[in-house]
Amino acid sequence: MIYIPEVFMSIGFLIILIISVFVKKNQNIVLGYLSLLLIFLTQFFVLKDIFLFEEIFNNFFVIDSFGSFLKSVILICAGFVIYFYIIVKNDSSLNRSEFSMIILISIIGMMLMVSSNDLLSLFVSIELQSLALYILVSFSKEDFNSSEAGVKYFVIGSLSTCIFLFGSSLIYGLVGSTNFSEISQFMSDQYSVPLLLVVGLIFILVSLSLKISAAPFHMWTPDVYQGSPSLVTAFLSTAPKVAVFGVLIRVLVYPFGEIIVDWGKILVILSIFSMLIGSLGALRQDDLKRLMAYSTINHIGFILMGLVPGSEDGITAICIYLIFYITMNLGVFLFILNMKRDQLNVTKIKDLSGLYKTEPLIAGCLALLFFSMAGIPPLAGFISKLLILNIVIDNNLFFLAIIAVITSVISAFYYIRLVKSMFFDSPTEELDLLTNSQSKLLLSIFGLFNLSVIFYPQFFLNLCASITLSLFALR
Amino acid sequence: MSNLPILPILISIPLIGLIFILLSSENDEFALQSKRSALWTSISNFLLSLYLPLNFDKSIPHFQFVNSFGWFNSDNLKFSLGVDGLSMPFIVLSTFLILLCVIFLYPQKKKNMRMYLASFILLESFLIGTFSSIDLFSFYIFFESILIPMYLIIGFWGGERRIYSAYKFFLYTLLGSVLMLLAIIFLYQEFGTTSIPRLFDFSLPFYIQVWLWLAFFASFAVKIPMWPFHTWLPDAHVEAPTEGSVILAGILLKLGGYGFIRFNLSILPDASIFFTPFIYFLSVIAIIYTSLIALVQEDMKKLIAYSSVAHMGFVTLGIFSSNLQGLHGAIIQMISHGIISAALFFSIGSIYNRYKTKEINFYGGLGHKMSKFSVFFLIFTLGAIGFPGTSGFIGEYLTLLSVYSKSTLVAFLSATGVVLAASYMLILYKRVFLGVVNERIEKKTERLNIFEILTYSILAVVIFIFGIKPNLILDYTSSSLERIIKLYPISIF
User: Fold this and answer.
1) Are A316 and A464 in contact (CB under 8 A)?
2) Does A358 contact B at CB distance below 8 Å?
3) Mean pLDDT, range B312-331, rounded to an integer
4) Residue A276 — pLDDT band, cuts 50, 70, 90?
5) Chains A & B: contacts with CB separation below 8 Å
6) Is the minimum CB–CB distance between A405 and chain B shorter than 8 Å?
7) N or C: which end of chain A has fewer CB within 10 A?
8) Who's near B310: CB < 8 A, 6+ residues apart?
9) Which residues have a Cβ under 8 Å from the Cβ of A228 and sit 6 or more positions away?
10) Do B182 and A457 touch (CB under 8 A)?
11) DSSP characters for A212-254?
12) Would you kindly state where each structural domain of chain A is located, as residue ranges?
């Protein structure tokens, strides 16, 4: 039985579902702990088989270390989000038994996504995770914004689905198969690749860009990020991005590796747009969650650059970037979750002001995270940006590198604006902050991690390099 | 040579001190505990940094005290530290000025003194790291890290428009240095190494050198700062607290000059020759234009800030004259400006602490009330003018000498800067210290405290020592500089 993690996860999920019937209404935390336990055990199964390679279910899925690594990252993200759910009880609307279980479903979807080896299985698993996410976004029933965000996300998501299906059907019509290895075979047999195939690929690319919110397909991101409950935003900005990036890498590098000239250009355009919109759009924002949405778009643009050459080093850099990006994002959202004044959740930037006076340690850690996002050395964000830029310059894409660094200076402006309001502004009204010591501890760990990565970057480099090897070695 | 890993020790002592400072209690008003920790840290680091000149082999032009650590798992990308004659004086200057800052701060009260001291001690570690890195990536990391403590120093403890100035400082410098990052990555891709001593052995085609030169120039021209890129400096200086200005003028500006010599001149000699007229043009404008602006300033700190830009004009002239005199002149000018401008900013800080204004018009006849202080200030003023006998003279003299051999016109134009410097500095002295004692000053006088006297005496003595015996520095630098000059294809034209 090779396909253990997903099967185990599904069975575990069903068991928790049964248990949930017997759990009293005000004791949903128990379910959170159970889900956390399930994620832990699944993580164990994932890591146990991390160096395995096998194609299963009639080539529908592939088990390789790249996929297993991404699964592990996704599980870590989800584990943190559920842990946040347990320790921070700020949002009463989330206090329903379904919450952790819907997260579990979406993780199962994501885990299937990153190991799909066929357009059909990919489609089904993308739908599985998306449907779960639509529910999560509109989870606060009473909140008008949350419902609005849910509808918006659903409409855009269905559009993305349609586009994906259309692209797949074009490819199927030409190749006669939806399997990645057969598409790859078809490509290498052809003397020149038919244009319609490229069109099909472009449709798939657009659909995936909608999922990772790469500009110009980013329109939904700020609204959805702002509207959905903060905990859901934390989840939305980490795990699905990792999963979709995994899919993007797998689709582009493996079956469509032959036409890198075509999709490379598209990725360049996508990344330039994302970086520009992500940095310029955030300048005028006054809401922290909205600003994080633009920051995500900016980071996505940066990560996409690493995929342009489609090389092993590039994908290693992307994996490292994703890991650091997750730690930064989770840290910031953990703080946003704890922002509260007079029993109401607040997310405005001006609510940060004077944080240093009341909570110097938290302000310091948060400043580290923001500086890290801005890519100031010696923090983790710098190392990841350095690795990506290294790839870009290695491939002589100088104009892209220059745009990247200039936009990252622009984005540094809004990150240091956040640091400014925490350290230099006098507080207008104090927040009732971080009543639980666990969030404090966790936030300090995130900050410390970002600070200390400079001493052992080779660890991540080795890890990710050995992971990406599997993607290339076994063609 | 002994095997003491002196450079890693110098970098890590402030970090250890930082822990003590952060752990110290802030219960008493003066934050004595943290001040003591900071003082001990900076004293021990200064004394240890003297190990470098004492054990330095002057005849070797190469890097000494080299320590390398594996970093990214590649043989060519290491975390390497080492000093040569060029960087050694700057390391000692950094530890010296930080020590003076801590001494100067000792009797003062300030909000959040503990964090203030911590920022300076952190800055010290980064500065030593920057000057002693002999790997491009570790250089860049230290070079950029400086932004974080400096941003906090200006933004948290600065004056009224501190936030605007902190932004401007941060973004200007960041924009310059990210372009340098691209150039560094390019060099790494091209040669497969980022070790600076090994980069000396390679040469690049001219058209690539030009682009790389411009990328490095963008970073260092902002830092030093040269004429059209200088606008952040007056704002940053005016708003920064006294000690912040001291470090900014004393050491951070020198990073630009150091970078020009270390990278633009050594690694990209052909492009440096090509761009020499361009640099001359900017430097001459900087010297004349900013001196004229300094003449009409009403704010003491702004005046000194503009004079810094003018003085740095001499440095760039000297650096790109590409002969030994010019480089020597530039180095002496940088060190002496580091000391003199630090002294002037300390003095302005002393006045400001007493009267809470930096407006020149407010003062008059201060000399009658604070006679000792007026003597010190006169010494510093003369140093800034470049009076013979002070260290300022040596730098300007050597620079002008080397420029004269290249172009009479440039030498003539830049020499007017010396005259202008004399006029704005002497006018400043006259308006503040001489004349009738005005009633605003009459009301409130306070003598110099022992810490201030100590600071000023040390600075004055150092100014005279280097003015009379510049060889104390030049002996160390000459062999390394000769090596750089040798890389020049047509150094004498």
Assistant:
1) yes
2) no
3) 88
4) very high
5) 76
6) yes
7) N
8) B286, B287, B290, B291, B294, B417, B420, B421
9) A136, A137, A138, A139, A146, A149, A150, A153, A236
10) no
11) HT-TTS-THHHHHHHHS-HHHHHHHTTHHHHHHHHHHHHHHHT
12) 264-475
